[in-house]
UniProtKB/TrEMBL annotation:
PROSITE patterns: GIY_YIG. DNA polymerase III contains a core (composed of alpha, epsilon and theta chains) that associates with a tau subunit. This core dimerizes to form the POLIII' complex. PolIII' associates with the gamma complex (composed of gamma, delta, delta', psi and chi chains) and with the beta chain to form the complete DNA polymerase III complex. GO terms for cellular component: cytosol. InterPro entries: DnaQ, GIY-YIG_endonuc, GIY-YIG_endonuc_sf, GIY-YIG_UvrC_Cho, Ribonucl_H, RNaseH-like_sf, RNaseH_sf. Residues 215-293 form the GIY-YIG domain. One of its GO terms (biological process) is nucleotide-excision repair. One of its GO terms (molecular function) is 3'-5' exonuclease activity. This is DNA polymerase-3 subunit epsilon.
Amino acid sequence: MILQEQKEVLRYSKEMKKQEYAIVDIETTGGNASGSRITEIAIIIHDGENVIDRFETLVNPEKEIPLSIFGLTGINNAMVANAPIFDAISEKVLEMLTDRIFVAHNVNFDYSFVRHQLEQAGFKWTARKLCTVRAARKIKPGLSSYSLGKLCYSLDIPLENQHRAGGDADATAILFSRLLEWDAEGEIAKMVKMTSQDQRLPPNLPPEDFNNLPEKPGVYYFYNQQKKVIYVGKAINLKKRVASHFSGHKINPQRQHFLRDIHGISFEVCANELMALLLECTEIKQLWPTYNRALKRFEAKFGIYQYEARNGYKYLAVGKLTKFQTCIHEFNSLYNAIDLLRSLAEQFEIDQRFCKYSRPEEGEFFQNNEVKSLPDVLLHNEQVDNAIDFLLSNRPTFAIIDKGRSKEERSCIWVENGHFYGMGYIPSDVAITDPSEVKNYVTQYKSNQYMVQLIFAYAEKYPGKVFFNKQFLK
């Protein structure tokens, strides 16, 4: 089998010598193709041995060039004022790119701009791509950096007029020629295959990080260059879900910045999707990654509080959560908190004047400038206590026990007094007869309302997996 693969690579490598490459570099007004434009483009045609053609021009982007871009590239508005717009050179660009492999340093950036502007000019174009960042990582592993400047310095490649399309394209062409010479294992031939998954990976991600992902449920972590977690996700199939982040041709700035920031992946396998969801929620709350947005909305913000005034009356109040006060119950929204408090007041006949939904209403204790009659303080306080006891006593304690990550274990999620307590794994040969024994096998996590909703929905759907609580047993 290995010999057959080697023969296939050798055959494909020979075919690649007949292939031509378009080595491209561009300068732009910004970092994303949808909101920015090309200000300069250089295309060098390489036949696998020599440079055979070259095209380079400034481009009028038909919009202002930001000062920060001018500081980086030296290209200003005056320089491009009389340059051709992209539409005027689009046919030339298309001609040079057609039937050639598109080569660039961090290829997806340049490719997205060129493809987008050709499409705006009326041309549908796609091409096989080759990223010299990825090729260098494979053929010359272990270098300190694979940015074009530092790579050229490490490999003794001349780089003149850096951050201009012509200068960077010339350096990339030399780098490409060297990589072809050093490529004893046929890595470039493998990479330019249309089916190559590696070509779709972010430029700074080591391929082995992706290849090590299992096809199992779990949680995955994306890291930036400083080894900080920038995104946490859950998956039923880790490899398939992570691959979905890198597929498609979306060109919005958030996606481009996101992919460029990914320098590493790690993962943790979970027994099922529910455990992956709970771990994802916990990790997002703890790590607060830059690119996670959706689950941050489910952070509880309000609670129901109980306090006693100087006059001896007990109050129930809705307020924002604080670090220094303990509430009776948490809520994602103010509406849900008010709705529950009103229901409790109605059910236990609590005087609405002692239920605070926001600011006290003007004159709530007065009528016709006279003090309204107040309920008996002992009876009122007993009604408030009964309402709180009802709320607390209706919080079930139970376990969800399911299959584990292997046959040697079972998974367990423990809920205590209506809150997610923790989760873990119990050896298959251990018999649990007392509910308190379950807690010895779980790792404790901080609960929130969203996680509790997920668990309760699962318990309702799969009552046969619920133990130690009659409420869910049928």
